[in-house]
# Entry
Amino acid sequence: MDVNAAVAAVAAIAGVLTGVIAMLAFRWSEREQKRPTRSSLHTDAVLPPGVDTVLSVLRSSAVVLDEADAVVKASSAAYALGLVRGGKLAVEPMLQMARDTRRDGEIRQVELDLPRRGTGRGEALAVSARVAPLGSRLVLLLVEDLTEARRIEAVRRDFVANVSHELKTPVGALSLLSEAVMDASDDPEAVERFAGRMQIEATRLTSLVQELIDLSRVQNDDPLEDAEPVRVDELVAEAVDRCRHQAGAKQITMAAGGTADLRVWGNRGQLAAALGNLVENAVNYSPARTRVGIAARSVNAPGGDHIEIAVTDQGIGISDKDKERIFERFYRVDPARSRATGGTGLGLAIVKHVAASHGGEVAVWSAEGQGSTFTLRLPEAGAARDRAHQQPARHERAGGAGLDEEAGRSTPTSPESTAYETLPAPEVLP
# Structure
């Protein structure tokens, strides 16, 4: 009995010890699970409440760093800019800013130029970085991409400089010519000559101011607010009438074809100005006794049918290096020739903005010495064609004036004026 009692006592003690050890092991496991580890610091759980939601709606690129400089949270924009790679902040100046802010708690901001990922052209991203403490252990980095803003500012700065230069030229000429007129008051021939020059400079200044107003209007206005089906043949007739005098003086023949029964959807005034600029350029840059052609056709496209209006000349042509810049404001292929013809360098810029605002585009084909073809692609009226029969265009409601009347006003009555021919179909364009 004593032996059995001893065995039972030993077994009871062993059972109690086993239970105690199991309970201690369970408690230790729970404590270890609750203790923050290095990997758990990289989860969203360590962020203060609401911070994750705020970061998700910020336009800026956001990165949250812990005390070990590991990335706790980063927005998709931060990855797109190349700020975060392999769970680490990849920009050393920003990382140093974060360390300094963590040390003294001060908010820091700096603008940096970062290399653009995936390009070998050496282009840089302009960014503004702001670092602030987030709680006791975390640091928040906000990065704003300033590249586009800087580009727009540079364009605006160049535009103001160009406008100042272009305005200064005719104004200065008028000032000098007026002094010359005063000094030559006793010479009628000199006064007449200087007065003629003053009239040319005044006309150039008027054209420049008007085109600046037109460019500002097409950039700021929404042409589709007053959109309507516009007949292509009427746009062509207006463009021909606008350039009739210049073409007649150089004995340039103007021919149009393929424009019947075609309609585009947009602002009639802006479309007329754009096509008029293309035709006027073709006349100004064409030698005497040559031909300017205007052809239109409907093109089926996956995104919707388009109307192509091509203006072809037999002028001096455009070099490959100039083709990339001819749609820039104030850019001229031949500055001396442009000044001789009164060009401002804004006509093609207006055409580009009108085409883009109407959901279209303008393209150019050219070869030096062979001429150029500018093609204006615009959305076809499409479904608006049916509405046009129920709601006639503004000019038709006003009195039914069609192409016949417009063409009649633009058709020459003497050999010295422009020859406006009607072709049965557009010619094959390059």
Remarks:
- The first strand starts at residue 61 and ends at 65.
- Confidence is low (pLDDT under 50) at residues 36-45, 336-342, 383-430.
- The two ends are 119 Å apart (CA to CA).
- The first helix runs from residue 2 to 34.
